[in-house]
Amino acid sequence: MGKAWGRNLRDNENTEIAGWIDVRPGAAEEAAKELEVSPEYLGTDLLEAIRSLSPDFVVDITSPSGHREVTTTALGMGIPVIGEKPMATDLAEAKEMVRASDASGKLYMVSQSRRYDGRIQAYRRLIEANLGELGILNSDFYIGAHFGGFRDEMASVLLVDMAIHTFDAARYLSQADPVAVYAEEFNPKWSWYAGDASATCLFEMTNGLRYTYRGSWCAEGSPSSWEADWRAVAEKGTALWDGHGDPKGQIVVEPGGFHSKVADISEKSFEIKSGIAGSLDEFLNALKTGATPNGECHDNIKSFAMVCAAVESSRRRQRVEIAELM
Ligand SMILES: NC(=O)c1ccc[n+]([C@@H]2O[C@H](COP(=O)([O-])OP(=O)(O)OC[C@H]3O[C@@H](n4cnc5c(N)ncnc54)[C@H](O)[C@@H]3O)[C@@H](O)[C@H]2O)c1
User: Which atom of ligand 1 is nearest to the CA of 64?
Assistant: First the structure.
């Protein structure tokens, strides 16, 4: 992912890579060579790099266990940060990172790259423009992924490594925040993962909305989209998005009878800069204008809290209130 960000920064006309740091000796040099960039600093020492370069911002694409250290170090030296999801490995670390942003007065934004997708933005527009008050939101994520490597051994692999994207999308689509969750993680007999690779979660969200997540990373055949398969049910009708094409739905035009009379609705996918290129642009704009971007840490910690609360609920086999963890 570091190299993907490297290409993104290299190719953006408003950015220049001043330094590349990786704790593994030689890794920064190897990446710079592959990307054909020549940063002033290449090495293993973040403090030394920041002191010698005085960069405008730091991009934290380390593994999740490195996020707290890298991000709080940069913020502590007065440097804004854009970092990869998930914020941290637990909520205690994430809270420390938010406090570091408060203390320095500098922006810390988490890049939730799947928000920068013309189809999910069209889906949100379709919901907002037509449906009225949302009561039910469902997402299904079923992909048989044979990654190999660390994920095969990881605990809570689906919830911790992937569900943050879908949970964050649920907040983006509904504009609601989590209140509580009941979750069960499990691992079907045939699963090739050591940790739980499947989960069902029922979230209570603000305004009484119920958001249901069903997912599995060991589901062979008929995969869902990586964006999940969605159904939003509201006062005036229903909107669907299969995570592939344009969103569509039906709204009531004449209530009554056994089934109300409905009309089809749809929205064309928006033309936007997608993925991490979109989040970099939003971050740069926020630095320039002071606007609050998607993924700003005080907001993004709520998506991360959904993951932590779901894992905790599954462990306790009880409903967990988000406020208890926050
Ligand atoms: N948005 C997405 O779709 C997406 C996709 C993949 C990964 N990610 C996220 O990107 C991040 C990186 O994932 P990855 O798959 O590239 O991981 P990775 O393990 O392949 O690479 C992480 C790199 O960070 C380095 N590192 C670790 N701790 C460090 C520290 N304290 N200082 C400097 N360097 C350090 C490691 O040596 C390694 O080279 C993770 O947070 C991951 O969740 C996001």
Answer: 41
61 lines ligand 1 (CB under 6 A): yes
The protein residue with its alpha carbon nearest to ligand 1, atom 26, reads 62
DSSP summary character for residue 150: G
AA identity, residue 9: L
Pocket test for ligand 1, best of 48, 59, 63 (most atoms within 8 A of CB): 63
- Domains 2-114+276-296 and 117-270+304-325 belong to one CATH topology: no
Taking the centre of ligand 1 as the mean of its atom positions, its distance from the CA of residue 71, in whole angstroms, is 13
Interacting residues of 224 by C-beta distance below 8 A, sequence separation 6+: 140, 141, 142, 143, 242, 243
CATH of 2-114+276-296, one of 3.40.50.720, 3.90.550.10, 3.40.50.1820, 3.40.190.10: 3.40.50.720
Q: How far is the CA of 10 from the centre of ligand 1 (A)?
A: 18
Q: What distance in Å separates the CA atoms of residue 261 and residue 121, rounded to the nearest whole number?
A: 27
> Is 21 near ligand 1, meaning CB less than 6 Å away?
yes
What's the full length of the chain, in residues?
326
Is the CB of 277 inside a 6 Å radius of any atom of ligand 1?
no
* C-alpha 256 – ligand 1 centre gap (Å): 55
Q: What is the pLDDT along the chain (326 residues), one digit of tens a residue?
A: 999 999 999 999 999 999 999 999 999 999 999 999 999 999 999 999 999 999 999 999 999 999 999 999 999 999 999 999 999 999 999 999 999 999 999 999 999 999 999 999 999 999 999 999 999 999 999 999 999 988 899 899 999 989 999 999 999 999 999 999 999 999 999 999 999 999 999 999 999 999 999 999 999 999 999 999 999 999 999 999 999 999 999 999 999 999 999 999 999 999 999 999 999 999 999 999 999 999 999 999 999 999 999 999 999 999 999 999 99
Domains in the chain: boundaries: 2-114+276-296, 117-270+304-325
Counting DSSP H helices and E strands in the chain, the numbers are: 11, 14
Distance 213 CA to ligand 1 centre (A): 26
* DSSP three-state, residue 323: helix
Domain 117-270+304-325 has CATH 1.10.3730.10: no
